[in-house]
Amino acid sequence: MSGWTVEDGKYLIDVAREAIKYYGRTKKYLQVINPPEKYMVKAGAFVTIKNRQKELLGCIGRPYPSGTLINNVIESAVDAAYFDPRFPPLDPKEADNVLIEISILTTPEEVVVKRPEDYLKEIKVGRDGIIVEWALGSGLLLPQVPVEEGWNVEEFLSYGCLKAGADRNLWRRGGIRLYRFRAYVFGEKEPRGEVEQVNLEL
């Protein structure tokens, strides 16, 4: 993965906020004319929206590099604001009063182990995000989630199973396929304020 800077994070957060406001006005996706070439690379991205109290309002993304980074940010921002089924749609007037976080993902890679307990050695909290796949679905947790929640690796895997709609202990029985990825994560300290790199371990 190319190195991404706080300046990149701020640019993409600004694009995400404008995409949210533009869709709120027009019901159309923002089109950025001639964006810097570096944001046209293929890369997965997630957009997380929180209120000033750091409570989650929406989080949706594209884990695989099927589109350009900037388009994935735009589409994910709109989806997180208006179409996350867990939350009511954001009032477009509130777009300037929320905290936006951008995660730029590496391409997920499958973690192949001989025994399920070996997953515990392969996944590191604070570095890895995970995708859990099983017969009836899949679920993704970003690298910052277990840090924010104070989970250890076992809890991380168990909650990954729950996110996928499976029994929390399915990973112990070898009933999943596990993928890991890393992410550059950038977030605002205040709405429309200073941006910082949230995670430092890559």
- Count of DSSP-assigned helices: 5
CATH top level assignment of the largest domain: Alpha Beta
Output the CATH homologous superfamily of the largest domain.
Hypothetical protein ph0010, domain 1
- Label the structural class: alpha+beta
Question: Quick one: overall form?
Answer: globular
Rg of Cα set: 17 Å
For the largest sheet, list the strands in their spatial order. Answer: 2-1-3-8-9
* The CATH architecture of the largest domain: 2-Layer Sandwich
Oligomer: single chain
Word description of this protein:
By secondary structure, the protein is an alpha+beta fold. It has two domains: 6-106 and 183-197, 2-Layer Sandwich (Glycoprotein, Type 4 Pilin); 109-181, Hypothetical protein ph0010, domain 2 (Dna Ligase, domain 1, 2-Layer Sandwich), CATH 3.30.1490.150. Helices cover 28% and strands 24% of the residues. It has five helices and nine strands. It has helices at 6-26, 69-82, 119-122, 144-149, 153-163; strands spanning 44-50, 56-62, 99-105, 109-111, 129-134, 137-141, 177-181, 183-188, 195-197. The chain has a five-stranded antiparallel beta sheet. A four-stranded antiparallel beta sheet has the order 4-7-5-6. Strand 8 (183-188) and strand 9 (195-197) form a beta hairpin. Helix 1 (6-26) crosses helix 2 (69-82). The protein is globular, with a radius of gyration of 17 Å. It starts with 5 loop residues before the first helix and ends in a 5-residue tail after the last strand. The model has no long low-confidence stretch (mean pLDDT 96).
